[in-house]
Write a structure and sequence with these properties.
Three copies of one chain form a homotrimer. With about 300 residues, chain A is an alpha/beta fold. The first copy, chain A, has two domains: about 130 residues, 3-Layer(aba) Sandwich (Rossmann fold); about 130 residues, Rossmann fold. Chain A is about 35% helix and about 15% strand. The first copy, chain A, has nine helices and eleven strands. A five-stranded parallel sheet of chain A has the order 8-7-6-9-10, with helices on both faces. The first copy, chain A, has a four-stranded parallel sheet with strand order 3-2-4-5, sandwiched between helices. In chain A, helix 5 links the parallel strand 6 and strand 7. Chain A is globular, with a radius of gyration of 19 Å. The interface between B and C is medium-sized, with 28 and 30 residues. Chains A, B, C: Belongs to the aspartate/ornithine carbamoyltransferase superfamily. ATCase family. Chains A, B, C: It is an enzyme of class 2 (transferase). Chains A, B, C: GO terms for molecular function: amino acid binding; aspartate carbamoyltransferase activity.
Chain lengths: ~300, ~300, ~300
């Protein structure tokens, strides 16, 4: 089954193949399913970016999206996730995209469900399409991952982005640096080296800021927003220390003037909105991969001129 | 007006015609509206199955579905259901599917609204498309209804499924048995005979389990889940007493290990997910019937090969 | 940028051009975008009419609507409206329709966002497409605005309809009368003359009733519904005093037997449901205008026979 649950399950070749396909979509190539094909997006947590991005990717592939509203679903009557997905499958849905607050919600589903599941985020676990769009954005800039220094800054411990990215970047040949308040360091994540922020900013080719996820913290954090910005945020002063060719990433939504100075969100080296654009292409590639079973081409390509 | 409000209003011939049409859809036949046609699904209660099933049926017929979110609608500002539907009609909607918590919500609408209304469930009243999909599933197994013993087990009194099914099954020539805790017997429903569960399980061709609808009970029920399962549930032991050719139905969502042992949900004689699949075909047939006014064919057939 | 934020920003010629285009759509003309084009509707307040009407208009133009659920969006995580719209733009959305509870929410966006924004209502501010559909309905009846007496009755102070309509009607040559409880008069709106209700009803060509917006009042109003109806409502007796050719408008949802006697909602001179029908045509015209940049025709016309 062509699930996409975590990047750790993919070989480097698989990852590069997805990035290659995404780049083709970015260059204007089109692929459409050749029969009416239904998918559903099951989002059990708030999301604008990821949800709209999947929807856009699906529509661009000619897929029909069956609306699913978690608040109005039978999950409210105690139905299990397995039964919900089996129901959608019985009705005719051919792939599901799921975001869920529980880490590894997909483990009981992995071998039990025989339509593709695409993980759009599991609790503090993984977020593979976010990682893929980060990788695509980095590769567009540098052409390679080998030897790049990538600094991941912020709440390393609770971030699915940090977890997914550090592992795959390391496998792709990049060198990962972590910067984090001591409370948010993640001793179980062995794919990065902790350094202080000013070192990281000066040395990194990519400064990847993590969002403070107020909604995932039971305890209050010990700083004001201003203090966090001063100590762990990308201030206007710090940005000036970055190397000429270095770029800024952030998974968004941005807490302006906390993780990053508001003026920098759309500065020349920021790729924050570029990441969102790339997200659509990456998700098109992932969906195409999921729907192509056993090598049969379940759609058709249209070669179009590049989009500028 | 081609409303579908209760099955009691349909003749046996009408019911059989819908089932026949549904079977054609199940065999791969297609019918598409031949102009842009808009419908809306007004769900004032949570639902996955019925809502997604209607949406799927609509899309398969080429209909465009105008999203309607009860929580974000003017019903929140006190608008009547009549005014809401008239509004949708003024805007260009040509049929509405409605689920509503009030029994017989449709009575003030029946003669006042001149676009078809399809009842997707009214309180403890009726749920005609659920009955139709049950009938379709039974007929696929036995080829007929005449002389079949159908046991309906559970909360007979609060169940719109029990109400709709007992009446139409009796008219179609089946023999209906009811099994229910004394508190949930329905003395007004004269279309079945109360028997004890073990008798029913042994004799019935169809064992139709009803969901415990916690959300419709003001009072607490007097049993634990384990006690209910032991006394009124289809346990693994009881399933072994069923006749070789008998089948199990459940309208879902299933409370696993309450109405039915979890291991039995997908057992060989279970038709629970088959019911959901049939639901799409039944709703396609009902929508087609609703949109064909005065004998004019408002669409076109495509004869395709059977879908296996 | 072809935003539509307030009617006050449009010339009389612009307004008449939109009305002319809407009338062509009402007469059965079709215009479709000639490539896959995405829009999003951002509704931060409940709405049936406006939301479904925009959705219908969009679908009729062949646009694809990316679902956006304010309750499940990152706005819940504190994202600014600017960042949300920029995100949608990055993802590929080419126009946004916004309803928001804050007056003038669009001011920080006006020069910062370079896809068209269509205002579907801002707090107690403006509601330009509602005004346009009122104008279209009036012009269908009288062929002109010059010299017409238009009475606007109700909560003048909190009504975005009153604000938008009084200004544009005056510019178009009509004479605006206001009727309002003293507490709800609006001394800053200089485009109308306060008269008593019975005078207005007798003299006006158009009696435009405003909805009592319970949801916008912090304080309780000093009357019962019956008292309001008696003093400021269109009772059955008052309707008899209207001129033969005069018409009744109401933006809906109607509070029946408060602003207007329930029996009058669909009386011969009521245009309340006609307004809703016209709303779709007006929104098609507005969306077409927004998507046609720099004179390039981003779609194609189909001349069809008139409907009706």
């Amino acid at each position: 089954m062509n699930h996409l649950l975590t990047l750790a399950e993919l070989s480097v070749d698989d990852v590069l193949a997805i990035l290659h396909e995404a780049e083709r979509f970015a260059n204007g190539e089109t692929w459409k399913v050749n029969k009416q094909t239904f998918v559903a997006n099951l989002f059990f947590e708030p999301s604008t970016r990821t949800r709209c991005s999947f929807e856009m990717a699906e529509r661009k592939l000619g897929l029909e999206v069956i609306p699913f509203d978690a608040d109005m679903s039978s999950v409210q009557k105690g139905e299990t996730l397995y039964d919900t997905i089996r129901t959608l499958q019985a009705i005719g849905v051919e792939a599901v995209v799921i975001r869920h607050p529980s880490d590894h919600y997909f483990e009981p589903l992995r071998h039990a469900i025989d339509i593709p599941i695409i993980n759009a985020g599991d609790g503090c676990g993984h977020h593979p399409t976010q990682s893929l769009l980060d990788l695509m954005t980095i590769r567009q800039q540098f052409g390679t991952f080998i030897g790049l220094d990538v600094a991941i800054v912020g709440d390393i411990r609770h971030s699915r982005v940090a977890r997914s990215n550090a592992e795959i970047l390391t496998r792709l040949g990049a060198n990962v640096l972590f910067c984090s308040p001591p409370e948010w360091q993640d001793t179980e994540n062995r794919y990065g080296t902790y350094v202080d922020l000013d070192t990281a900013v000066k040395e990194a080719d990519v400064v990847m800021l993590l969002r403070i996820q107020h909604e995932r913290h039971d305890e209050k954090m010990g700083w004001t927003k201003e203090q966090y910005h001063e100590q762990y945020g990308l201030t206007i002063e710090r940005e000036k220390q970055m190397k000429k060719t270095s770029i800024i990433l952030h998974p968004a939504p941005v807490n302006r003037d906390v993780e990053i100075a508001s003026e920098l969100v759309e500065c020349e080296r920021s790729r924050i909105f570029k990441q969102m654009e790339n997200g659509v292409y990456v998700r098109m590639a992932v969906l195409k991969r999921a729907l192509q079973k056993g090598g049969t081409q379940n759609g058709y390509h249209i070669q179009t001129c590049a989009l500028a």
